[in-house]
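Entry:
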Amino acid sequence: MRRFAPACSGLLLAACAAQHTAVPVPAAPPATALRYPASPRGDAVDRLHGAAVPDPWRWLEDEKAPEVQAWMASQDRLARDFLGGLPGRAALASRLRELVYVESMGLPVKRGPRIFFERRAATEEKAALWVREADGAERRLLDPGAWSRDGSVALGAWSVSWDGRTVAYQVKPNAADMATLRVLDVPSGKVSDVDVIEGARYAYASFTPGGDGFYYTWIPTDPRIPDADRPGYQEVRFHRLGTDPAKDLVVRERLGDPTTFLHAEVSRDGRWLFLFASHGWSSTDVWFRDARRGPAEPLRPLAVGRKHIYQVTAHRDRFYVRTNDGAPRWRVMGVDPARPEREAWREVVPEGEGTLRGLEVVGGRLALAWMERAQSRLEIRDLEGRRLGDVALPGLGTASLPSGEEDDDQAFFSFESFTAPPEVRELRVSSRASRLVFRLAAPVDPSRYEVEQVFYRSRDGTRVSMFLVHARGARPDGSAPVMLYGYGGFQQPMLPVFSAPLHAWLERGGVFALPNLRGGNEYGERWHEEGMLLKKQNVFDDFVAAAEWLVREGWAGKGRIVLRGGSNGGLLVGAAMTQRPDLFAAVLCAVPLLDMVRYHLFGSGKTWISEYGSADDPAQFAALHAYSPYHRVAPGTAYPWLLLDSADHDDRVDPMHARKFAAAVQAATRGGPALLRIERNAGHSGADLLRATVERRADEYAFALAALGIRSGG
């Protein structure tokens, strides 16, 4: 996806060690002892491809219905009352506040004489956008913390004109996906009252070299258009600064296909305009034209109908195409715009042992980001693809692709790992030398922990890698609380990244396990393809096999593992819970997909059909229905403790999934509690506030530890 898709003193360490003794606590009441809100069963039944599909909680799909609103309020009240009374929750919240309320800084972006970056002070709830002038003076440009009284309005994606004079940025009420695009004049600090573009859900401004306008993707806000169909109305438009957005030039009209994303990019020198049509996460069509010849110049195909992904970087008279066409682990092809036919392309960087994650032209060279065994390597090559050497990294972990300009030797990249807090480094591309600019001063002692990478076999014999994070010297004796986290989809890799809240789990003797499931792209496109559509069950098998390995190797006892996942990862933990309830103690399931028969009828569901398939197709319906967690809930089963975390303004994954699943599990389980917690003024990624992060993680960890019969003292 494009850019528009986180040290204790000696006395403090001693105090931390003293308060993290695990002691048994009484088990929480079984599900039968909780008084859940009434969830009457309906009689809705669909007949799909000859199969009867009951849907007893169909009525919970209508969020605006008064009875659903009352049901949601009762569920959230029950969840918060239960969570608030858990032993050790207050101590967890206190430690989480120490961990997250520290100064942070994002990756700098240099444009013209200015450098732009996000920064958050230790006392602030959210990051602001800052600029550093050529003389070193710094000032705050955008402060989303001041945009609303309750802090619910968020700053979304932002981009800067090449001369550094203009910023186009998304304003997102309730941190939802739907946004408004605004324009800021950097020298004066004034926000334009004219350049206000609604329908900016997918908008990321690609500026012309002179900064007089930008290309963007527009989507209508007309309430008469069903949300599930709205992506099919995307248009690519050009906006000239200071003019009425209603009169913007339409560069590409809507395709009428809600499974396809449209966007446009213009090259740094303004010569080349590229139009991309991305068919989910599986293939991309690309057209281009010489923008100097004006909008009447027709678009020419560069890669159309080839069922692969193509990402294009133009530099002067050459296109550099990062693609998985003929290279499942990706490679770079060079293209002469005068001869764009596929047979005339020339390989510049061949496919390697690792997976090529990204490419940029910076400082007159090619900067390449590789994943090797799910860890980062940064490489610099010349423009002909000749290898110049690697950029030295602080250790094994995750590095971002360097950010810089095509002919400027100065660039920036970030680095982090499970135990190393994020840092920003300035890179001199010509020498490949870097220096530290900023390091997150998280109050943790990384030396207390170690990271292992292990391998295990999935159900079909596939070898899968997994990271384990635990106390240094810890041995698998089955006594530690183990959290198993996963995602497995949409080409998203699970890499060693730093999470300050995770340390509240590790400090309580916890183990964190992160497998590289199929569906991601840690090992190339074939790894992704083996976890999508009719092969989606492979992802769940990989996850269950990870849990079985943890039990077999002695890290956890059977039924003593905590699952955690969100969004597509929420589907993952829901599937694991309903397929193997005996393996797990608790399930932390956030903003999930759980009704896979009807998912495509809500929110952004149709944009994921290339990944999951659709119940409209007979074969795909059979696969979806077989694993759909909502449809697999079986009465009388002792399900693990379940905490569902939903959001009241999630316009990506409809909260109906969490509501229906909560009702189904509450009616069926003879195991632990099944709770539905609803985040207020929050979108798919949660509320854009640190205090919300603290409360959510404190609830999750306290719930998980209680399910295991463990509490934190103090």
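The chain has twelve helices and 42 strands.
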